[in-house]
Each structure stands twice: as structure tokens, then as C-alpha cells.
Design a protein that fits this description.
Blueprint lengths: L11 H4 L1 H19 L18 H4 L1 E5 L14 H5 L5 E7 L14 E9 L8 H5 L5 E5 L14 E3 L3 H5 L1
Antiparallel strand pairs: 1-4, 2-3, 3-5
């Protein structure tokens, strides 16, 4: 037999910890029931969604068009850079003169495509606030947009009027 034998003893205090805490737990339940007697308790169907966060989940950025059908985007790419979910895609082509046709200062790029990866968009509105030309607006979307998300990235062209409205 070895000279040193390790004996493992289990603490008896841990086994009875639940029994020591049970009276305090039952007392807190009784006090809560006594305070709410006669009141109907309603469960929140969406406990993880705060009431003020729900409208943000139903908004998506859309490009603002003028009465002539010309968009305000000048291709500065600021909205794409500040987007936390990286859901905006901006395609530009180089030009020689003013790209917007408004006769303002000359821009070297013309916006040829502006897309939104709707599955990634969290509706925070950072892109619309960062746009210096106010070319983006956060607008509510239909209830179908709250359907369960898939893992397929679908790009919506925001420059076409069909893509902007659905």
C-alpha cells in the first residue's frame, strides 16, 4: 500500500445550499404574487425586442429622385463606407464633365449602379444621415420584409424605380 493516499471529501455545505436558499426564494415569489393580486399578468410576445427598436427593423434606405427622375447621388461612396452591416453596393464609372446634369461642380464619376443587400440591412439609418446630398431616405417596408431571413444575398437595384418601390 502506498504511503500517501489522497482522500477526496465532498463538502456537505454545497449539497444543502439549495435547501438553505429555498425559503428566501419561496418568500420572494409569495411577495410578488401578493403585490400583483387581482392584476392580469400579460406576457410580452417579443421580449427581446424593445418597443422603440421595432420601427428601425422595418426601414430600408431608398434613393431620392427629383421630379425629372434624376437621382441626387453623386458617387461620393460615403454611405458605403459608414454602413455597419456593409449592405450597400455602389458602382461608378469615370466621366469627363458634370455627371449629374445639374451644371454644378464637375464630378469625376457617374453612378452606374446602386444596390442594397436587403438581407444584411439592419435599418439603422447611418447611411442616410451620412449622405451629404440627402440622396438616401429611410422608408418603411412592407410586412413581408419581416419574414424569416434566408442565407441568400439578394441585391436590389435602388436606381431603378421598380427596385426602389418593391
Amino acid at each position: 500500500m502506498p504511503a500517501e493516499v489522497v482522500v477526496v471529501k465532498r463538502s456537505r455545505h454545497r449539497a444543502f445550499a439549495v435547501l438553505r436558499l429555498a425559503p428566501a426564494w419561496l418568500r420572494s415569489l409569495w411577495i410578488a404574487a401578493w403585490r400583483n393580486r387581482g392584476k392580469a399578468l400579460e406576457a410580452d410576445p417579443f421580449p427581446l425586442l424593445a418597443a422603440d427598436s421595432l420601427p428601425r427593423l422595418t426601414r430600408r434606405p431608398e434613393v431620392v429622385f427629383s421630379h425629372e427622375g434624376v437621382h441626387r447621388c453623386v458617387g461620393c461612396n460615403l454611405c458605403v463606407r459608414v454602413c455597419p452591416s456593409r449592405c450597400l453596393v455602389l458602382e461608378t464609372t469615370p466621366t469627363d464633365g458634370p455627371a449629374d446634369g445639374r451644371g454644378g461642380e464637375a464630378h469625376d464619376v457617374r453612378v452606374s449602379g446602386f444596390g442594397l443587400l436587403g438581407e444584411r440591412c439592419i435599418g439603422c439609418g447611418v447611411c442616410a444621415r451620412a449622405c451629404p446630398e440627402d440622396a438616401l431616405e429611410m422608408r418603411p417596408v412592407a410586412a413581408a420584409a419581416l419574414a424569416p431571413l434566408s442565407f441568400h444575398a439578394v441585391e436590389t437595384d435602388l436606381l431603378s424605380t421598380e427596385g426602389a418601390r418593391g
